[in-house]
């Protein structure tokens, strides 16, 4: 029987590419998104290549939609083999200038959505004594960056959540936990981040304006210097996710490019894949 996988945020980018890639590699894919009206491009691929992809509505900020999607999978297959927490959104703005609604939104989408989806699948994986949970975090989940502190804070939270979870669900229940940490991704994710910042004119005035202008200029310079491989395609990141999914002993942490590896080196050099810290935590607490 094929392994099944629930993927969040599949309308574009890494989620879209992962849904297709997993289906082409003998997975039964449950591709979810907030609005199924955005599934037309994915439907074209499903029909063209006769892919085993099933579309479900799921909004990671609404627990009732998460439960409904997981219930559907269990009803259809009596199991859930893998969760890929992919849904997320970029955000760059100073803490001072962010509204309460924006702070809640960036936290809900990037952190609490991961918690809620993970919470929904864990009882089934624990019962079947097998499963895998892969979460897209970011180099921003390891290294805080200017004007990204709220986004990085949410991604740091995912890293801590997954690290803590890995210490006690891995061995007794055979549930594998991994965080995939890209640098920049050339997808609508980046477009969304920019729309939340410069397009709204948040930094046109004020003391932060010249600092932010330097930050945006640096981003543009890195985007233009393709040889540095800062910005990967969604498919390149999806291939790393697939490798993790097919690994019998997947790492807790993995960067998706040499640039990301170098960027995080000061934080990761003692324990690049996170296996040492998990073992240390098990030895200390369990």
Structure explained in plain terms:
With 286 residues, the protein is an alpha/beta fold. The chain has a single domain, classed as NAD(P)-binding Rossmann-like Domain (Rossmann fold), CATH 3.40.50.720. 52% of the residues lie in helices and 14% in strands. It has 11 helices and 9 strands. The strands form 2 sheets. Strands 3-2-1-4-5-6-9 form a 7-stranded parallel sheet, with helices on both faces. It has a two-stranded parallel sheet with strand order 7-8. Helix 4 links the parallel strand 4 (82-85) and strand 5. The chain is globular, with a radius of gyration of 19 Å. The two termini are 35 Å apart. The model has no long low-confidence stretch (mean pLDDT 92).
Rounded Rg: 19 Å
How many beta-strand runs?
A: 9
Order of helices and strands: EHEHEHEHEHEEHHEHEHHH
The order of strands across the largest sheet is 3-2-1-4-5-6-9
Strand content: 5-15%
Major β-sheet annotation: 7 strands, parallel
> Ranges with pLDDT <50 over ≥5 residues?
none
The name of the CATH superfamily reads: NAD(P)-binding Rossmann-like Domain
Kindly name the structural category.
alpha/beta
Quick description:
By secondary structure, the protein is an alpha/beta fold. The protein contains eleven helices and nine strands. The protein starts with a strand and ends with a helix.
């Amino acid at each position: 029987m094929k392994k099944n996988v629930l993927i969040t945020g599949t309308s574009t980018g890494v989620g879209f590419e992962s849904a297709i890639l997993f289906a082409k590699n003998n997975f039964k894919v449950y591709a979810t998104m907030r609005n199924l009206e955005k599934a037309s491009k994915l439907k074209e691929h499903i029909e063209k290549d006769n892919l085993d992809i099933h579309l479900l509505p799921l909004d990671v900020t609404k627990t009732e939609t998460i439960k409904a999607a997981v219930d559907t999978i269990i009803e259809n297959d009596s199991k859930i083999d893998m969760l890929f927490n992919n849904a997320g959104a970029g955000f760059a703005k100073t803490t001072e200038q962010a509204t309460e609604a924006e702070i809640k939104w960036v936290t809900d989408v990037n952190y609490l959505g991961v918690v809620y989806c993970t919470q929904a699948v864990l009882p089934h994986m624990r019962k079947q004594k097998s499963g895998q949970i892969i979460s897209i975090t970011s180099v921003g989940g390891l290294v805080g960056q200017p004007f990204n502190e709220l986004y990085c804070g949410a991604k740091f939270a995912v890293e801590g959540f997954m690290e803590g979870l890995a210490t006690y669900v891995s061995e007794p229940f055979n549930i594998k936990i991994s965080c995939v940490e890209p640098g920049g991704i050339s997808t609508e994710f980046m477009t969304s981040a920019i729309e939340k910042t410069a397009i709204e004119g948040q930094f046109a005035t004020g003391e932060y304006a010249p600092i932010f202008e330097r930050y945006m200029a640096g981003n543009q310079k890195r985007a233009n210097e393709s040889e540095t491989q800062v910005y990967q395609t969604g498919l390149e990141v999806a291939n790393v996710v697939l490798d993790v999914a097919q690994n019998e002993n997947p790492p807790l942490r993995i960067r998706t490019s040499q640039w990301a590896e170098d960027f995080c080196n000061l934080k990761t050099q003692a324990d690049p894949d996170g296996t040492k810290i998990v073992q240390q935590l098990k030895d200390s607490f369990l």
